[in-house]
Design goal:
- This protein has a domain of about 180 residues.
- Helix 1 runs parallel beside helix 9, helix 2 packs antiparallel against helix 3 and helix 2 packs across helix 10.
- It is mainly α and about 300 residues long.
């Protein structure tokens, strides 16, 4: 058994449980870029591993009551059949070099979209905090809020997410959770993560069944991913209620951007330029956004002010 793959899977599992980020957005590109697994095989193997991994993180949120079952049901209506469709479309294309290139390109594009989505998610949260603080918006919820389900857009989100998972293994956490945040801003972060993890279980199970029937599952890849991911996801889910995932998500946005560019065949030079631009430009832009919303330019400045206030 590949111990390196086992360790990487454990680390990614922690991130999944901690932030609600879909494991496919990290595991599949890691298999392709670092372990030289063919893209179609990487997608099939990772989806099957996710079907075993997701329930462990979900159980913690079910036990803690951080799941909105109405939203789970609506998402599943769209995601389960579209996940089957995504796998069938991939199978129809065959397994030649053109298909490998298509899946690799699709994965790269979805990762870049997911990276941008994480930044949008962080901005929406920051704006929500600003509105609550200055009184222009209701206070942030302390108790579990009631939300009114929006059936049509929620089912559409499930359809798009399921299709992406079937084709690329990415979408169950990295895309759907961002759409949920935009549709239901009243949900607390823990509810977003819990709802997303639970809805992902039937989604990835459906995709896994289709990949087992039509895909290219490699059990020498799948088993280490399962064995590493399960304890990692459980640990991350336990930590999610105790630590903030904001910094982790911003780091993930950069990682996903780099992985997406590499999967699209961008050279190392231009990837490094994009990384430097994202890190430096993103830090400055985020500081300006914070400042315009009434916060300090850097997060540590707010924390220092809070410490000084408590000291008085």
């Amino acid at each position: 058994m590949d111990l390196g793959l086992l360790a990487v899977a454990a680390g990614i599992g922690v991130v999944v449980g901690l932030t609600g980020m879909g494991g496919g957005a990290l595991m599949t590109p890691a298999l392709v870029l670092f372990f030289n697994i063919p893209p179609v095989t990487a997608v099939s193997s990772d989806v099957v591993a996710s079907a075993a991994m997701k329930p462990f993180g979900s159980w913690v949120h079910i036990k803690n009551g951080t799941v909105n079952w109405q939203l789970v049901r609506l998402l599943v209506y769209g995601s389960v059949p579209s996940a089957f469709l995504g796998v069938l479309l991939q199978h129809q294309f065959g397994s030649g070099e053109d298909v490998q290139h298509f899946v690799k390109t699709a994965l790269g594009v979805v990762l870049i979209i997911a990276s941008a989505g994480l930044l949008v998610r962080a901005y929406l949260r920051l704006r929500e905090r600003a509105g609550s603080r200055d009184g222009s918006a209701p206070p942030l919820p302390k108790d579990r809020p009631d939300v009114t389900p929006r059936p049509v857009p929620t089912i559409i989100v499930g359809i798009i997410g399921g299709l992406m998972v079937g084709l690329t293994s990415v979408g169950s956490g990295s895309l759907i959770i961002i759409a949920l945040m935009a549709l239901y801003p009243a949900l607390k972060a823990s509810q977003l993560v819990g709802t997303d993890l639970v809805q992902a279980v039937p989604l990835v199970v459906a995709a896994a069944i289709a990949h087992l029937a039509f895909g290219e599952v490699d059990w020498t890849v799948t088993l280490p991913v399962i064995l590493g991911s399960i304890p990692g996801t459980y640990l991350g889910a336990q930590l999610s209620s105790r630590v903030g995932g904001g910094l982790v998500r911003r780091a993930l946005a950069i990682v996903l951007l780099v992985a997406g560019l590499k999967l699209l065949g961008v050279s190392n030079t231009w990837t490094l330029i994009a990384l430097a631009t994202a890190f430096i430009g993103g830090t400055l832009a985020w500081g300006l956004i914070r400042y315009r919303l009434g916060f300090s330019f850097f997060i540590w400045q707010d924390k220092r002010k809070q410490t000084q206030t408590k000291g008085k």
